[in-house]
Amino acid sequence: MLKPTLEQRGRLKTKTVPIHLNHADEPLPRKPSWIRAKAPTQPAVRELKLLLRQHQLHTVCEEAACPNLGECFTSGTATFMIMGALCTRRCPFCDVAHGRPAPLDEAEPANLAEAVELMRLKYVVITSVDRDDLRDGGAGHFTRCIAAVRARSPGTRIEILTPDFRKRVDRALLALEQTPPDVFNHNIESVPRLYRTVRPGADYRGSLDLLERFRFALPQVPTKSGLMLGLGEEIAEVEAVLRDLRERGVGMLTIGQYLQPSRYHLPVARYVHPDEFTRLGDYARSLGFTSVASAPLVRSSYHAEQLAGA
């Protein structure tokens, strides 16, 4: 399994995106005291990485350089990233590599199901790179993975964190309706004013519509979304996004701090104080969100089983 290069994650991915980059001799901004994560050196981390390599699997924990990798791997949890490690999008906040993806691995659903069984997971999150090269955006592969996991681990709850299925939503929903997850997650990521910079190729209204249409088609399945802070948004804009999500029936929410993966990615505009995360979490609950995680190191699948009440 070929590992994407650092250039595919950074310089080559963002060279066509108009963003201000740190100069080569300019260090990345120093992180404040409240953003600290232990280095993932525990034996359990090495064992889980070995298991993943043996089954030809990727995790977003590794590919997106998640700061919680050590904590989650040590507790035996992971967010699996299907459909390869190369994304067809060039989002300059993300550390997942850009490139031309390989054809889908037909053995991946079975390999994923075996790994979930070996890890004895009660709750699993499955996400993916964007696959704009596929007619259904990869939704059919999601359903094959869901079916394979359920066949081997019928007691395991499954959350999927999907791309936006741009221009393929009809096909995607048709597939997902046949084999739905237990939780449907799609991240809104940022405020609409910043979309052209943060999510080039995506559409704010399109993401809202995907969440709403899934909720309408499968009202028994909870919907979930997440945002990053620290990219230049105003708190009033964030609150407006939360209201938009609630109007679409989204009940589960994560809010975390954006961290710049390298000098070739979007710079951090500011580090948001934990008190602001607490206030936004309280505001979200006042709007009617039933499950909220809002703190600097929160990520979209962080403690996902607890957020879902599993």
Write the layout of secondary structure elements.
Elements: H1 6-9, H2 11-14, H3 43-54, E1 58-59, H4 60-63, H5 69-74, E2 79-82, E3 86-87, E4 97-98, H6 108-119, E5 123-128, H7 139-152, E6 157-161, H8 169-178, E7 183-185, H9 195-198, H10 204-217, E8 223-229, H11 235-247, E9 252-257, H12 274-287, E10 291-294, H13 304-307
Helix pairs in contact: 6-7, 7-8, 11-12
Could you write a compact summary of the structure shown?
By secondary structure, this protein is an alpha/beta fold. The chain has helices at 6-9, 11-14, 43-54, 60-63, 69-74, 108-119, 139-152, 169-178, 195-198, 204-217, 235-247, 274-287, 304-307, and strands at 58-59, 79-82, 86-87, 97-98, 123-128, 157-161, 183-185, 223-229, 252-257, 291-294.
In quaternary terms, these chains amount to single chain
Approximately how much beta-strand content do the residues carry?
5-15%
> What gross morphology would you assign?
globular
Number of helices: 13
Helix content: 25-40%
- Summarize model confidence as the mean pLDDT: 85
Q: How is the largest sheet built, in terms of strand order?
A: 1-2-5-6-7-8-9-10
Q: Gyration radius, to the nearest Å?
A: 18 Å
- Structural class, from helix and strand content? alpha/beta
Euclidean distance between termini CA atoms: 33 Å
Low-confidence stretches: none
Please give the number of β-strands: 10
The SSE string, one letter per element, is HHHEHHEEEHEHEHEHHEHEHEH
* Biggest sheet details: 8 strands, mixed
